[in-house]
Design goal:
Shape of chain A: extended
Strand content of chain B: 15-25%
CATH architecture of the largest domain in chain A: Orthogonal Bundle
Structural class of chain B: alpha+beta
Distance between the termini of chain A: 57 Å
Number of domains of chain A: 6
Radius of gyration of chain A: 38 Å
Shape of chain B: globular
CATH topology of the largest domain in chain A: Hypothetical protein af1432
Helix content of chain A: 40-55%
Structural class of chain A: alpha+beta
Oligomer: heterodimer
Number of strands of chain B: 9
Strand content of chain A: 5-15%
Distance between the termini of chain B: 34 Å
Chain lengths: ~750, ~325
């Protein structure tokens, strides 16, 4: 048994790549070793900005000898066959074994592949790992062709056994392996030789390198919280920043500094974002006031002045940064409070493209505002406020602060709307209309925010659907799945009653119409003008849809236009109408909503077939209604009555479908009481008559629990009917009547859901 | 490294960098005599990073970024500033150490400061170039850009050049402890005629800011852009064989001058606010096309590592 230590020492590895690289090194090495027959007891990878380290314990000294038996030709087979077999096995004839088998004596070849020493295998696997390492981005350097994330300087590869240790020899493009590494770049740069992992880790620690990123994180966090605590403050938690900072230092030294008083009035989010993004500082806040008063920076070394110079430098840089932020904040506030106000920013958004097929941000905002107005009454919001909120909700995209820190979009809008004296609902909507962003993000409840949030997301979805930019597989560059889930969660948690279809259709139609207009060249627009001329002279029927004209030549004269109009008409007949295309796309978008809804409800324990049974019903574009129905059906289907009624329904449906197919008629006239012969039949007839009314009025009242109750009441009569009655009576009149009765079961149950879609 | 004394002026820092890099074997070049946005545009970097010939050069490059003009009022933003640029090909294995040595040479005490290499990949859409490297932080401040060129003008760099770019004003202000660039001593404050950065540049910053933002004639600039573009193409369309001398003379540098011109005119137009978001990309694409064509031409020259029969056999 041996332990293996590998260190790949390079120039500074980007912090965000380190953890993944450590895992990749571990996986590629251990997979390669195991595949070559070298098993091991344990392995762990550690990383610093300059090194990827892998320690493997309990590695075999040799790969095991492999013995393979191959069955050959029969003894006495033609020489050619035997020679071919020998060639394949790499043996000579006297090495073959003869064995008796039920089919006579047969030659067997025993091939032994001797095991190989660990070092030889390690060298091969390591070279392959280095040459094919999956860096997200790699580079060449100097005159060589080797690729690594940054120049690779040295390879330490030591195999340690009880009787001593050896360097695994390796040479990759002139970088030869050894048993040395060096310490901290500034504090202990000398090379040291190591005998194994423990020796290595200990010597590095003495050379001011903390090898384990988790240990660095813990040290930073502990020191930071202690220093903050000593001043009665607390560090703002940020796991991502902690991991990143731990990837920037080998010897973390935590320093706490003050923020100049003149910046303390900036919004805390601005302070925090500026410090984090530009300087990778932690924010330190006063728990009593919530204000951010200090910062924590993490240096990579100790100094004789205990970090005084470093801290002073950092403080100076921060002041320059915050001076910028303050400048943006004050400029933005001045505009927000001025006479033009946030509307002024909207104008510049007419120069910003949202998507080249969907127009500018300003055009998009206009669409969202119109839609928010339309949705407002449905969600209980004031239409004027909703429209106003939608108009200013994205205005902050033009502000200097959001230009500098895009992640503050929405939040800055809220601050600026407040400063501008806009109504609270409007200010809130600036921030909240982006929500919910993820499946666990909070859903807005304030009606104006809900209206704008819905309008924003529905506009995005219909826009991208209209231009055929739908998510495919794992690709969803415009986060449309998230937008659809956002709509679903907004609707459901606010109990919004909103029939989506007509809205989806009309929005898609409007984009579709614009698209077609854009496809027309200027020449075609000339033609439209010509058509106008013809129309005024009443030489063209008014019904001719000039917007859809697609012709490729100019029309300068009315005469020419006439012929072109004819061609265009012919062409139009082959082009699906805007209405057809839009309706197809909006149906598809609705089913995308349904798919997302299924995923969402599945997590809440509702079966997909139950949802399918409800989606098949009228009004499936009202998601709140749909879910209400699905929840009731789910509950019913998990009851005994439900399960049994389903069986009865299926049986009725099967018999009926077969009979209808055979007879070529539909038995939907309703049964006639006078042809009823059996008591169970009569009971079912009465139950269905009662149930139909009860269930339909329950459905009408959207009381799905009552509707399910009505269904439950059918279970016993249905069961009794099938128990006692033979549907296929010799008397054709009786038979037809019974089939019509079965049809009634289907009809009555069908008011609730399409039970034929339920499995089981 | 011996303890160095603290420099006392902006020019002393420049002089020390010159001396340092000269001592490390770089040819100390002079600034390129055209308006450029950054030291990278100097042909000693863009063109010389191409091809197989070894190279080592360092120089100061006055750089212009019209949109950054603040009438000399902002403590660190200028429309005209200086970059110090070092390009070594192939990149030596100890380039990081050489770089740190240069910081020591200009008075950064490694025992007291915190130097960090923070990921920052470099890309120049106008030059069709990219590389991997870092921004170098000194106590949290970015003092240099450190890049291993991977591609320039659409050509893979073989061998790879190591490029160092120092933002001289910011670095000097930090070392000299100055808060406003205009207050920075340009020459030695003890000299008989002490001059600050502001004595030399405050007025010009105002003049250029006004011209850049409000006065530059955009029609003329637009025409100049097109002319530079056309001239670049016309130069490169010439026969390689010069009919007068009978020599093979590919005019990569004169063509590249036109590319530099177009790029600067684009920056001026941008500052005048006459370029929309969509047009912006198109203009950048046009400059990149020129840069690529110049790179294509340069690699056919001797300096570009071409060793064809007509290029002579003596390429070092």
């Amino acid at each position: 048994m041996a332990d293996l230590l590998i260190e790949l020492f390079s120039e500074e590895i980007p912090a965000r790549m380190q953890a993944r690289a450590g895992e990749d090194l571990k996986k590629r090495m251990t997979d390669g070793l195991v595949e070559a027959g070298l098993t091991y007891a344990g392995a762990h990878a550690l990383t610093t900005p300059r090194r990827l380290t892998l320690a493997i314990e309990g590695l075999l000294d040799h790969s095991p000898t492999v013995r393979e038996e191959r069955k050959g030709p029969k003894v006495g087979a033609p020489d050619k066959a035997i020679e071919g077999f020998l060639r394949g096995a790499g043996l000579s004839r006297d090495q073959l074994e003869e064995r008796d088998t039920p089919k006579g004596a047969v030659y067997f070849a025993i091939i032994e592949k001797p095991g190989r020493p660990a070092a030889e295998i390690i060298a091969e696997v390591l070279e392959d790992t280095i040459r094919n390492f999956p860096w997200p981005k790699s580079m060449r350097w100097g005159a060589g062709s080797l690729r690594w994330v940054r120049p690779l300087h040295s390879i330490l590869c030591v195999l340690t056994r009880e009787d001593g240790n050896e360097v695994v020899p390796l040479d990759i493009d002139g970088i030869t392996s050894g048993d040395t590494t060096c310490g901290h770049r500034f504090m202990a740069p000398a090379r040291v030789s190591v005998t194994g992992f423990e020796d290595y880790a200990a010597k590095l620690k003495r050379a001011f390198v903390l090898l384990d990123p988790k240990e660095r994180e813990a040290a930073i966090w502990q020191d930071a919280t202690n220093q903050a605590f000593a001043s009665g403050l607390e560090v703002v938690d940020d796991k991502g920043l902690l991991a990143e900072v731990a990837g920037l230092v080998e010897w973390p030294v935590v320093l706490m500094g003050s923020i100049d008083a003149e910046f303390l009035d900036l919004p805390p989010e601005v302070l925090q974002t500026s410090m984090k993004e530009h300087q990778k500082f932690f924010s330190v806040k006063n728990p009593k006031t919530g204000r951010i008063e200090k910062f924590i920076t993490v240096a990579n070394r100790e100094t004789a002045d205990n970090g005084a110079t470093i801290l002073a430098g950092n403080q100076k840089v921060l002041s320059a940064r915050l001076a910028d932020a303050k400048f943006f904040w004050e400029n933005d506030l001045r505009i927000a409070k001025s006479e033009v106000g946030m509307e002024g920013w909207l104008e510049s958004l007419s120069n910003v493209t949202f998507h080249n097929k969907l127009g500018t941000q300003a055009a998009r905002i206009d669409r969202i505002a119109a839609l928010a107005r339309e949705i407002a009454p449905v969600v209980g919001a004031d239409a004027d406020l909703a429209e106003q909120a939608a108009k200013v909700a994205k205005a902050d995209l033009s502000s200097e602060m959001v230009y500098e820190f895009p992640e503050l979009q929405g939040l800055m809008g809220r601050y600026y709307a407040q400063a501008a004296g806009l109504p609270q609902e409007v200010a809130k909507a600036c921030q909240l209309h982006y929500s919910p962003l993820g499946p666990s993000d909070e859903v807005p409840t304030e009606p104006v925010s809900v209206a704008v949030a819905l309008a924003d997301k529905i506009d995005t979805l219909t826009g991208f659907w209209a231009i055929d930019e739908k998510p495919t597989g794992s690709k969803d560059p415009y986060a449309l799945r998230r937008a659809a889930l956002g709509v679903i969660r907004l609707v459901l948690s606010n109990n919004v009653r909103f029939t989506l279809s007509s809205t989806l259709f009309s929005l898609i139609r409007s984009t579709e119409t614009n698209q077609r207009r854009l496809k027309c060249s200027s020449k075609e627009r000339d033609l439209e003008a010509a058509i106008e001329v013809l129309r005024k002279r009443e030489e063209l029927p008014l019904a001719f849809p000039n917007k859809e004209v697609l012709v490729d030549e100019a029309a300068s004269s009315v005469e020419f236009a006439k012929t072109k109009v004819k061609e265009a008409k012919a062409h139009l007949e082959d082009t699906p109408s805007i209405k057809e295309v839009s309706s197809c796309k909006s149906n598809h978008l609705l089913s995308f909503f349904h798919d997302r809804l299924k995923v969402f409800l599945r997590d809440q324990g509702i079966r997909h077939d139950v949802i399918d049974a409800c989606i098949a019903m009228e009004g499936n574009d009202d998601l709140t209604l749909l879910v209400k129905r699905a929840r009731a059906l789910e509950a019913f289907m998990s009851s005994e009555d439900g399960e049994n009624l389903l069986q009865g329904f299926k049986r009725a449906n099967n018999i009926l479908s077969q009979a209808e197919e055979k007879d070529g008629v539909e038995y939907s006239y309703g049964a006639d009481k006078k042809f009823i012969e059996d008591a169970a039949e009569a009971a079912l007839f009465d139950a269905l008559a009662a149930g139909e009314g009860a269930i339909s009025s329950a459905i009408e009242a959207e009381d799905f629990a009552a509707a399910m109750g009505g269904m439950a009441a059918l279970r016993a009569p249905v069961d009794a009917f099938f128990e006692a009655v033979q549907v296929n009576s010799d008397n054709q009149v009786v038979r037809r009547n019974r089939l019509n009765l079965l049809s009634q079961i289907r009809k009555v149950c069908g008011q609730v859901a399409d039970l034929s879609r339920i499995e089981g | 490294m011996t303890q160095t004394t603290a420099p006392r002026s902006f020019q002393e820092i420049i002089l020390r960098l010159q001396t340092y890099w000269a001592s490390k074997g770089c040819a100390i070049l002079q600034p390129y005599d055209m308006e450029v946005g950054a030291g990278t545009f100097h042909p000693a970097t863009t063109l010389r990073s191409l091809g197989s010939n070894a190279w080592a050069a360092a120089y100061v490059q006055p750089s212009r970024r019209p949109t950054d003009g603040r009438y000399g009022e902002n403590p660190n933003r200028l429309q005209h500033y200086y970059q110090y640029q070092v390009l070594i090909k192939p990149s030596p294995p100890d380039l990081q150490e050489l770089y740190l040595g240069s910081l020591e040479a200009i008075g950064v005490d490694m025992e007291l400061h915190d130097i960090r290499f923070v990921e920052d990949d470099w890309e120049s859409p106008t030059l069709g170039a990219w590389g991997l490297g870092w921004e170098v932080w000194c106590d949290g401040m970015e003092v240099s850009q450190f890049t291993y060129f991977q591609q320039v003008g659409g050509h893979d760099c073989h061998p790879v050049s190591g490029e160092l770019t120092y933002g001289l004003e910011r670095l000097a202000m930090y070392i000299l402890g100055i808060d406003h660039v205009m207050d920075m001593p340009f020459n030695d404050p003890q000299s008989p005629q002490p001059l600050t950065y502001g004595d030399i540049f405050k007025q010009t910053e105002e003049e250029y800011a006004r011209w850049n933002f409000d006065v530059a004639n955009t029609e003329v600039l637009l025409r100049h852009f097109e002319e530079a573009e056309a001239e670049c193409a016309a130069i490169l369309a010439q026969e390689h064989m010069d009919p007068k001398t009978g020599k093979r003379i590919i005019m990569a540098h004169p063509a590249y001058d036109q590319c530099i011109k177009a790029s600067h005119i684009f920056n001026l137009l941008d500052a005048r606010g006459v370029i929309s978001v969509t047009e912006r990309q198109a203009y950048i694409g046009r400059v990149r096309t020129l840069a690529k064509q110049c790179a294509d031409a340069f690699v056919l020259t001797e300096a570009g590592g071409h060793t064809g029969e007509t290029a002579g056999e003596t390429a070092a």
